[in-house]
Specification:
The complex is a heterotrimer of chains A (162), B (89) and C (110). Chain B contains 3 helices and no strands. By secondary structure, chain B is mostly helical. Chain C has one domain. In chain C, α1 packs antiparallel against α3 and α3 runs antiparallel to α4. The chains are: A mainly alpha (162), B mainly alpha (89), C mainly alpha (110).
Chain lengths: 162, 89, 110
Amino acid sequence: MFDRLSFPQPWLSWVLFLTWQILSDGVSGGSVVLGLILAWLIPQLTHGFWPERPGFVKPWRMPAYILRVLKDIVVASFSVAWLILSPRSPRPAFISYPLKLEHPLAISILASTISLTPGTVSADISDDNKTLLIHALDATSDQEVIDAIHNSYEKPLMEMFQ
Amino acid sequence: MITTALYLTIGMVTLATLLNVYRLIKGPDEPDRVLAIDTLYINAIALIILLGITLGTRMYLESALLIAVMGFVSTVAMAKYLKRGSVIE
Amino acid sequence: MSLFAEYAISALLLFGGGFTLVGAIGLARLPDFYTRLHGPTKATTVGVGAIMFSSVIYFSSVDQGIDFSEVLITVFLFMTAPVSANMLAKAAMHIGVETVKDTEGGPWHQ
């Protein structure tokens, strides 16, 4: 009974509540009440779809990671823009990336980061969650791309989740 | 100065939209067309924001938000349809 | 409006418009589906993000107060772009879309 009244995913509830405050015109009594209802109702209804509670070990490292990724996205866009506009045709490659992360949420964050940064898009993941298929727009060598991703993104995520 | 930059930007985004339409018509495969539509809705959001700045009103932001949400859902639905042959299994 | 805000808004607008255009040129010009995927996911998302950011600065400098709707849209776009790219790549691999000739390696067949 008390389970029904609780917030099974506090993070999701916070995000929903804050999003509702941003969407409504200014914070008022009504928007707070409705936000609370939504923050309770939506996690309850979608509870069955979340296989396990995502567990951050060190959530305070997230802002630094996001800032770094944002910086990389802007820098990466320039290199992609240069590749698109230059007359020579790029050398695309499919690369199998061996994952060291195990947490599903960490893997999906890594995959999203890969898609947004330098000339790589994550295309698929193997059934055993051990390998990520990456498409690189312009790769000189597979190992170079793998090392770059491992050092700049996977390591910080490993520290955050393990 | 802002007005000049604004009109230049609207011109560039419109040109981008036309290029997307070219890809939408040319194809050659279904995923290319879905990708073109995906880019088109993002460009539409940009145009709506630019229109909002031009007219000095925030009214259009709600529609931009709706297009963002609906566009994403429809792209995912189309991708799922291409992969599985049905959207809801 | 201060001169600095004007410069910042104009620069961000042109930056955003330029990247949106580059993304579309990539979509129109690159040789196969998988390379075309790169233009919209990166360049267009960054371009629209910059335009949103200029809109935030514009409306807060003509003192209509700060509204976070633009930020919400930007965050949403940045979160969804990789997901739709991934879904489309999977669909393309399933259908067996051809890759350009000098691609190293190939897609999986699961």
